[in-house]
Amino acid sequence: MSVLRPLLLLLLPLCPGPGPGPGSEAKVARTCAETRQVLGARGYSLNLIPPNMISGEHLQICPQEYTCCSSETEQKLISDTEATFQGLVEDSGSFLVHTLAARHRKFNEFFREMLSVSHQSLAQFFSHSYGRLYSQHALIFNSLFSRLWDYYEKSGEGLDDTLADFWAQLLERAFPLLHPQYSFPPDFLLCLTRLTSTTESSLQPFGDSPRRLRLQITRALVAARAFVQGLETGKNVVDEALKVRGGSDCRKALMRLIGCPLCRGVPSLMPCRGFCLNVANGCLSNRGLEPDWGSYLDGLLFLADKLQGPFSFELAAESIGVKISEGLMYLQENSVRVSAKVFKECGTPHLVSARNRRAPAPLEETGRQWPWRAAPEEERPTTAAGTNLHRLVWELRERLSRVRGFWVGLPLTVCGDSRMAADISQEAAPCWTGTGRGRYQLPVVVGSRTEQTHNPELGVDTSGPDVPTRRRRLLLRSATARMRAAALGQDLDMQDAEEDASGSGGGHQYADDWKAGAAPVAPAAWPPRPHHPPRRDSSGGRGRGGGARYNQDRSRNGGMPVGLHTPPILILFPSVLAMLGPR
């Protein structure tokens, strides 16, 4: 035994001692050199950071053991850790905000340009065909488009009133021109307007054109406005949600997560991933928009399909001039019947003496033949931006597919940053647990705010979302409801106005052309949605798809498709606006 004792004494220093427990990293190295280096690079004053660890009884959040942080340093770290977390959240959501903002701008520009092009096309065609005659009566057409603009941009008066006023003014101008031998006093014209504005009236001076124009332009404008407003609401709600600051519990948890390792003198020890996920889930519980977010995206895509299908904005904008021309032709062809009913209801006006009677307009002013033709597909222009509705919808669908699970995956995105947690590949290695080096043993709590009440890192209020969170979700639900209603032909804005005025609503509902009225028309067959983006063609727009190519309404003669450039209408129509000569 005496022989082995010297050998045992020699081997004793080589035997390993017990492993380090919590806080042992401070016992091994009492120096704050690493912490001073890291915080000094961030702009902290080294005078506030001791060279060696001091007693930590003054700390409010971090473990009150040996520390490298003074009270001032701890308070500054609390603000910095919150700013780091907030910056990561906003950076993660910047793509989502940019996507919604860019889609809102592109769709809004497209709808505005289509409405402007429709106005310009009508004015150009009428001016070339009728010259001064159209100029003398252009005010009622300009007023129509002005009120359509107001409805789209400002949610102005209902489209029913706008279109009814237009047809009444058009009849007030056109009817006296059918009978230049009569003098029409204001009372007669007022009676004429009353006849056309009465829903139960059988006069129908313009045939079925007012009804079909109302259905087509109203459902398209209601859908376009709800869609653009929905994109804007979504962008604003997301932007606001991303900028929400966490409460005091969140700030404390963030400090324990990424601030306290600095105070413990081990800034290179990364927080455990489970620790980070619990903190992130708890801090983001009052920002997430699920399950309303998924419903909102579904509403956007549902309405987008309607806009390039049965509620085509392109088709509706191009058909305004067609429906007006059809109505005027109907008035001319049925002038005897219409006049008899008007004279029966309003009386017979006084004859004008031959000397004061207006001479008929010369032939060269009544209808110059302007050879418009249906433009081939390769010649049809897209918008000035070089895009069309099919491509816009394809791009929207492709981008929204990336952000559907954004709010659910946001904690994972934040904790994937190297400043917040250890890399997932190093999950088995020791990490910062909130108190020291080790492995995070607590369960990770994911899910809704209710489930976050069991989060071990910070307590979440069990009373439900706060008022700002409820308001954001309500805005998102309201936008979703309006988009879904618009996709069904309902204008909830008009419904709200009617409920405020009369206490009963129901809203305005605009059915498809083939489902309303006495003369049903078969719907057009829409092409299937492409699985690839339509080609962008600056010269012709081959990616235009089927928006302006297909028309749901049929002309009364021969069942030919009606388009803005349909030759049969242009052959018959020059004699119609001759009625709109100087009075």
From TrEMBL:
The keyword Lipoprotein applies. Its main location: membrane. Residues 1-19 form the signal peptide. One of its GO terms (biological process) is regulation of signal transduction. Cell surface proteoglycan. It comes from the Eukaryota. It is found in: Cell membrane. This is Glypican-2.
